[in-house]
Amino acid sequence: MEHLGHKQFFLCGHDRGARVGHALLTIYPSAVSKAILLDICPTLSMFMATDQRLATAYYHCFFLIQPSPFPENMILFNPRLFAEKSLLGLASTSISPFGTEAFAAYFAGLFNPASVYAMCENYRAAATVDLKDLRENISEGRKIEGPLRVLWGKKGVIEECFDAVKDWREVAEERMVDQGSKAVESGHYIPEEEMPEELLVHVKEFLVDG
């Protein structure tokens, strides 16, 4: 962002993008003026709270962290099955929430060994170096310092298994989690599952006009 001329900016991230956002908010707190994180809880909180419900719904998290090349080979053996079970399996309806072109791009990536390896490495990092960093944040008292709004889907796993506002307040400075944080009428894919208009309202209200 500095290379593009932005020393400070807003951030809105979903799922893995929100996890990257969490790291950015703690490592470079002055870079982000405000942030919206979509349908996740902090990585450490999620691993620590894992029970049968979460492990069943988010089975892919535990599959993808297995040592290479086991998950990569399994995915590449039948990319379509993996896409239908894992990518579409997190939607709140049986109909794909993705546009045709977007889904085709996601699906094509599952045929590319380098893309599949990178995807698995992302999850393996979440279960290793990311957890190490998050534990260090706790021991050294590093927290999110700027205003944060958290949105999650009423029809998704976060609503069923977590107290999202409580979990984010534990990793943020006092009163930094915005009062507008809430569950929205959606599943996991908030930007796609009939929610782009409501999400845009939150972006304008909290980031642009707030």
Characterization of the model:
This is AB hydrolase-1 domain-containing protein. Residues 1-70 form the AB hydrolase-1 domain. With 210 residues, this protein is α/β, with parallel strands linked by helices. The protein has a single domain (9-208), classed as 3-Layer(aba) Sandwich (Rossmann fold), CATH 3.40.50.1820. 51% of the residues lie in helices and 10% in strands. It is built from 12 helices and 4 strands. It has helices spanning 16-27, 43-48, 52-57, 59-64, 70-77, 79-87, 100-109, 113-126, 129-140, 157-161, 164-170, 196-208, and strands at 9-14, 32-38, 148-153, 182-184. A 4-stranded parallel sheet has the order 1-2-3-4, sandwiched between helices. Helix 1 links the parallel strand 1 (9-14) and strand 2. Helix 5 (70-77) crosses helix 8. The chain is globular, with a radius of gyration of 17 Å. The two termini are 22 Å apart. The mean pLDDT is 93.
Overall number of domains: 1
State the helical fraction: 40-55%
What are the low-pLDDT stretches, counting only 5+ consecutive residues below 50? Answer: none
**What's the CATH topology name?**
Rossmann fold
Main beta sheet strand tally, sense and closure: 4 strands, parallel
Would you state the CATH class? Alpha Beta
